[in-house]
């Protein structure tokens, strides 16, 4: 069914369509468990007035990223903005696929954080900052309605036939919202419709054809996955979310090394006793594509992890890597190479947060030998 959509305000909001506890009143992503307000404050942003849509725009639907939904808009958006947004989306897609594999294969490690998830993310043109809302339409083909962006290959959505680019219309017969507030409103609706269920019916539009698919929910570690807009070689976790910076993504040489970084932060979410408010502030600061990358003030509140904390997290991360079929000792080689990077030694960088490298490497080697996970 072809549905004409009226462009509305340019308010960026981001979500992942994952089952969480319902009733969340703040702007959250659906794969993130409900978080105490004191840890993750979300400021209210005023909605800008509607902008009239050019009458000459040609609407085009595509299930492929990089297509244009409003062809005439491409000429109006600076090329550097189109390229930056495409680069951001490509980086996040890589991050989400590796994280999704770890989340699904390690449910036994996170019983208190396990949730049944839909197994895909969805975005609309307001999922990025106001600055990039036109670029989201021009470069990514995004409009008013939520559109599937990433699908976890091991999840129920993938097996049910959900595809990248599908436009989401209903869940269990309930219309999914569109427009600037779609993500926040959809978070509440999806939470309510999936609670206590093993599967849900999703109605979508694909190339102007409406269809309904039954999607089995997938048990997973329900941590929020964030891409950090910083060149720092770093990763962070606040008990609910995991962030990997663009600098770290550029540094890792394989998905195995990236899996180690993510698994380590999953493990810290599960094992650390530190006050995570400073980490939450860093993640809030860097999670937006339009965020500033200067962290001088924010890192002052951070504290490096002790060797005992890191070794405990490393041991759990090794188990996660083995269950997810990654080579465990890629972990060791990655840390040795990282120790030579000056950028990672800066305040807030990976080596600064995890200074006890020699003790960690010795413990990793011992653990890998004793368990046969080499």
From TrEMBL:
It comes from the Bacteria. Binds 1 zinc ion per subunit. Residues 116-208 form the PDZ domain. GO terms for molecular function: metal ion binding; metalloendopeptidase activity. Keywords: Hydrolase, Metal-binding, Metalloprotease, Protease, Signal, Zinc. Its cofactor is Zn(2+). GO terms for biological process: proteolysis involved in protein catabolic process. Residues 1-27 form the signal peptide. GO terms for cellular component: membrane. Belongs to the peptidase M48 family. PANTHER family: METALLOENDOPEPTIDASE OMA1, METALLOENDOPEPTIDASE OMA1, MITOCHONDRIAL. This is PDZ domain-containing protein. It comes from Noviherbaspirillum saxi.
């Amino acid at each position: 069914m072809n549905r004409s959509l009226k462009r509305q305000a340019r308010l960026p909001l981001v979500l992942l369509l994952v089952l969480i506890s319902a009733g969340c009143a703040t702007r959250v992503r659906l794969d993130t468990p409900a978080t105490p307000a004191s840890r993750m404050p979300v400021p209210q942003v005023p909605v800008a007035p509607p902008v009239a849509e050019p009458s000459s725009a040609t609407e085009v639907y595509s299930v492929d990223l990089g297509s244009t939904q409003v062809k005439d808009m491409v000429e109006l958006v600076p090329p550097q903005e189109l390229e930056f947004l495409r680069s951001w989306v490509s980086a996040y897609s890589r991050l989400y696929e590796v994280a999704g594999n770890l989340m699904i294969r390690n449910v036994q490690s996170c019983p208190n954080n396990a949730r049944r998830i839909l197994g895909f993310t969805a975005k609309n043109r307001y999922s990025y900052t106001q600055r990039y809302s036109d670029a989201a339409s021009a470069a990514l083909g995004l409009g008013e309605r939520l559109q599937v962006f990433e699908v976890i290959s091991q999840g129920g959505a993938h097996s049910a036939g959900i595809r990248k680019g599908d436009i989401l219309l209903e869940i269990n017969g309930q219309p999914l919202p569109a427009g600037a507030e779609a993500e926040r409103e959809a978070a509440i609706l999806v939470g309510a419709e999936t609670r206590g269920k093993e599967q849900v019916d999703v109605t979508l539009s694909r190339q102007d054809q409406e269809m309904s698919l039954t999607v089995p929910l997938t048990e997973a570690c329900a941590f929020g996955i964030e891409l950090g807009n910083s060149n720092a070689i770093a990763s962070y976790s606040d008990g609910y979310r995991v962030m990997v910076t663009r600098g770290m993504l550029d540094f890792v040489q394989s998905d195995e090394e990236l899996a180690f970084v993510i698994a380590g932060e999953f493990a810290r979410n599960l094992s650390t006793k530190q006050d995570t408010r400073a980490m939450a502030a860093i993640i809030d600061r860097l999670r937006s594509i339009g965020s500033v990358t200067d962290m001088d003030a924010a890192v002052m509140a951070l504290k490096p992890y002790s060797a005992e904390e890191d070794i405990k997290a490393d041991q759990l991360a090794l188990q996660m890597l083995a269950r997810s079929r990654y080579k465990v000792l890629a972990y060791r080689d990655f840390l040795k190479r990282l120790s030579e990077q000056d950028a990672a030694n800066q305040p807030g960088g990976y080596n600064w947060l995890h200074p006890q490298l020699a003790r960690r490497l010795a413990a990793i080697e011992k653990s890998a030998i004793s368990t046969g996970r080499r």
